[in-house]
Design a protein that fits this description.
cell projection, three-stranded antiparallel beta sheet, LlgE_F_G-like_D1, five-stranded antiparallel beta sheet, cilium, Flagellar_FlgE/F/G, 2 domains
């Protein structure tokens, strides 16, 4: 009987974390470039009352008698599906059509990766994120430049006073990973590589490594589907409720056993 209490408690704990994951997804439904998470579970150790396959006689074997001891969360899978595009009209807003991540340099010099393409200029004319992280490779736009254009292949050009043709200011690069779902989320719309994701493979947009192309004047919305998250919320609630009823039933049975000795 004691097993039922702990088994149901493990289910309640797992569904609490499942609801935490759903809450984070919904909270970031308006976060540009956000990738939704999905919690994965696995069953816990089994108690072998009778080991499957053990000999019952010289001719037959036992089917086995195993009692499961609950569940536990093991991973949060990052869902890398494309989010919808939102037209902003800002020349420095970029969306990636297809695979890939923008590369940015953090204050400690480390390279991080993001799908959020909301860039602006710092006081030196360099393209940076909202947190001031430099876009890598660095692109510097002169203060007197007008009509900044970024092609789908990452070529940045602008009109400079006194020049008859547009000046090319640099070319953007994107990064891909063998397993982008294994990236380490650190907040601020940023990811860091891990042993699970593999090392970054860089290329120009639309290159031969499979990276996507760029869309100037657009931002990629979060890929969170609110309807799907509400369904997950209801499922988590019902699973939690069912496990709590198991705890209540086990407690009632304990009470009946205790009353037998009175």
């Amino acid at each position: 009987m004691i097993r039922a209490l702990y088994t149901a408690a493990s289910g309640m704990s797992a569904q609490q974390m499942n609801l935490d994951t759903v809450a984070n997804n919904l909270a970031n439904s308006a976060t540009a470039g956000f990738r939704r998470r999905r919690l994965q579970f696995e069953d816990m150790i089994y108690q072998n009352v009778v080991t499957p396959g053990s000999a019952q006689s010289t001719q037959t074997t036992q089917a086995g008698l195993q009692i499961g001891l609950g569940t536990k969360p093991v991973a949060t899978e990052v869902i890398m599906t494309q989010g919808d595009f939102n037209q902003t009209g800002n020349n420095l807003d970029l969306a990636i059509q297809g695979q890939g991540f923008f590369q940015v340099t953090r204050p400690d010099g480390a390279i991080a990766y993001t799908r959020a393409g909301s860039f602006h200029l710092n006081n030196q004319g360099q393209m940076v994120t909202a947190n001031g992280d430099l876009l890598t490779p660095q692109i510097t736009i002169p203060s007197n430049a007008t009509n900044v254009q970024i092609s789908q292949y990452g070529v940045v050009s602008a009109t400079i006073p006194g020049q008859t043709q547009s000046s090319q200011l640099g070319t953007l690069q994107l990064a891909t990973f063998a397993n982008p779902g294994g990236l380490n989320s650190i907040g601020g719309n940023l990811f860091l590589p891990s042993t699970s994701s593999g090392t970054a493979i860089t290329d120009t947009p639309g290159g031969t490594t499979g990276v996507g192309t760029l869309q100037q004047g657009y931002l990629e919305n979060s890929n969170v589907d609110a309807v799907e998250e509400f369904v997950q919320m209801i499922m988590a609630q019902r699973a939690y409720e069912s496990n709590s009823k198991v705890v209540k039933t086990a407690d009632d049975m304990y009470g009946q056993i205790n009353n037998l000795v009175r």
